[in-house]
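Hi F.,

I've been meaning to write this up properly since the lab meeting, where we talked about keeping a consistent format for the predictions we share between groups. The idea is simple: the sequence comes first, exactly as it goes in, then the structure tokens exactly as they come out, then a line or two of notes. No screenshots and no reformatting. I'm using this chain as the first example so we have something concrete to point to.
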Amino acid sequence: MQVAEIAARETLSPVERLEMALHPWVGFVIMPLFAFANAGLPLSFAHLGNSLTVAVFVGFALGKPIGVLTFSWLAVRTGIAMRPPDLDWRMMAGGGILAGIGFTMALFIADLAFTDSLIDSAKLGIFLASVFSAGAGVAVLMWVPTAGITATETRGQRLG
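Output, unedited:
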């Protein structure tokens, strides 16, 4: 097993290895900071109790996971889709919760949909729902047992 792993690693060019090493930093640190910096969200929680903030939060944090799970279940039940045997519904729930992270496109649509007096409330709801969805989704996925997944697959290096 180690020989195959070393051979697979050696077939990658230095640029591909650099890309693989930087991907977690770019995906989980740099891009979210870039999106947050471009959001133009004032760091004020004055709009926390606003009905629009609550509605946006509930829509992202509850509505999207419910929609993802409901339509996934319907697709499996009707035969439109097949659920792989190693993918249980708890993992699907974790993925559905992660679907509540809708930061960049949601901010763009909010800018088009709301007036200046409501945009800060919408942005705060989007930000809070994205943070909540990220934390809750990761927590659910960490709680789900990974019995059918090997160590190399968790690192994203499928060898065959």
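Notes:
The chain has a mean pLDDT of 84.
Helices lie at 2-10, 14-39, 51-78, 89-98, 103-113, 116-143, 151-154.

If this format works for you, I'll send the rest the same way.

G.
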